[in-house]
Amino acid sequence: MKLKESSLDFHAFIAIYGDTILNSFIKKVYQVNQKEFVLQIYRSDVKKRDFFISLNKGIGFYDAEKPEEATQLSMLFRKQLSEKRIVGIEQINFDRVVRITLHTGQEIILELFGGGNLILTDNGKIVFAMEQHVYKTRKVQIGEEYIPPAVINPVADLETFSGILDKSSASIVKTLATRVNLGGEIAEEALYRANIEKDKMPSEIKDQYQILYDSIMGIIGESSKNNAFYYEAEELLSPVLLTAINKEPDVKFEDFNEGIGFYLKHYPENEKNKSSVERRIESQRRSIEEFNKLMQVYNEFGNYLKMSFPQLQKLINIVYNNVKRNTPEDFKYMDMDISDINPGKNTFAINYNGTKIILNYRESAGNNINYVFNTAKDYKGKIEGAEKAIEETKKLIVKEKQKAGKKKRVKYWFESYHWFISSSGNMIMAGRDAKTNEKLVKKHMSDDDIYVHADLYGAPSTVIKHEGIEITEETIKEACIFSISLSRAWPAGIGSGTAYWVYPSQVSKTPESGEFVSKGSWIVRGKRNYVLNIPLELKVSIVDYKGNNIPMISPAETRTESKKWVLIKPGNEKRSVAAEKIAKILGIEKSEIESILPPGGSIVVENSKEIKELS
């Protein structure tokens, strides 16, 4: 998985967890966002689980944040799928396509390539598709029979695998990545293990096909061992150890789904922050990949037809006579499937290596061969056009960066909250609003953590993360200062206040009878441990996090390794004015500072020793 799960990831997930999904009942369906869904499934021996589906990331058991109100689409899915039993789950032809079969004959098809698609079928016919498309080889439209994007498994056997390589005009690494559905990282790993140079052409390594096939099958078998390996710099999660990277993984998991959950939780922020221009380039690159595949298929088919010229003419005559006799049924000819005979357009289709190629039975064999080669040239032209478009789009990126002045740094997942690192090294996070208050407690608070709250209504939920670091009294006091400083006490100009801390087991969403708990609010039961006379004074500093200089706001007394900091207190200077002053002193963008300041006005403590040293 690198931003999006690969064919190998899907194979691994289904091989490892498929049996535990079978005979589960779909209880509810949630729509997390436009591209993400949760099937809440239940089986008596494994209880209730959330089967997470992201059309632009992948699948796994993952506790995604569910909306409080059901969307219209989730209600539609509930009506179609609730209480249905899953009797099958499979990957189709080692592609990024998963089919979930229900006891009613309905199917949920997940096409997790490109922009992604979720399709529902009933007895093989499409009854719903999030995205409807008409492709050269198939139609994804309501009422049409569902046809998968690939009709052969490229790693089914050595003969099929060799046939794909023989017909490829791309390098071996590109062939494995695209035609064999391995993706770039696994293609390079297979070649590395087989000791084959990735830039070789398939024709140059014909005598090593068996070795390469065995290498791929070894990787596929290894992927089912229920492990996961995370490479942080590469932003990559793999079900197999990637020896081609020549370094140890940063994190190892003995459960593949734990790795998926970790990856989704720390999903690379740089992907989320891509501009529309960068996303346009990615779309153009995907188009080039698809055009390149089709160009190769049409060239290969054209050469095949040239070598079978008499047989092609005979086939054209057979189709023409069948139409004249009013019997335009599908049939087989020389191991090829002949289908889609259309008397209105004088056309018929030949299924060649998973691609339906349309020919004209009123044209000669020579004209049809010319049409096939011309189509290949058209795709070549489209590739060249897309490559030019990418170059033009790159120029727009340069202009965007020049306009922005500086390239924006990577934003980390915890920066969606208020946060700081305590003197003892604990991560402390607080919500920014009702939504993040809710998410922080539900998603990030563990049993070993501590929950902190200012003794004021509407203050943010604050969590001290344990994560193997002892939570000291000093850390608790710092978290209490942080919590009350981010509350309405700051804009009110209060100099000190009170906060309390409790254990996670005391925090609940369940109200007493007749009460209501709003979003972002929590019920705290049992003894509250109060910390009194808390001073409202914060420190803005620059800290090094994974090689990036990022601003951190923390209690003034927090010990940091940073030599640059600015003290602030509640005051009457607008946030933007205070942010500008702090940014100038610390040498960082104003927008970075403004986003972390507490609500209301502040005053920069101009006469502090630290500022004088920086002046």
TrEMBL record:
Residue ranges constituting the NFACT RNA-binding domain according to the UniProt record: 417-526
Entry keywords, A to Z: Coiled coil
GO CC aspect terms: RQC complex
Gene3D superfamilies named in the record: ibrinogen binding protein from staphylococcus aureus domain (2.30.310.10)
Keyword Coiled coil listed: yes
Coiled coil residues, start to end: 376-403
Molecular function in Gene Ontology: ribosomal large subunit binding; tRNA binding
UniProt keyword annotation of Coiled coil present: yes
A single BP term in Gene Ontology: rescue of stalled ribosome
Protein name: NFACT RNA-binding domain-containing protein
Native organism: Ferroplasma acidiphilum
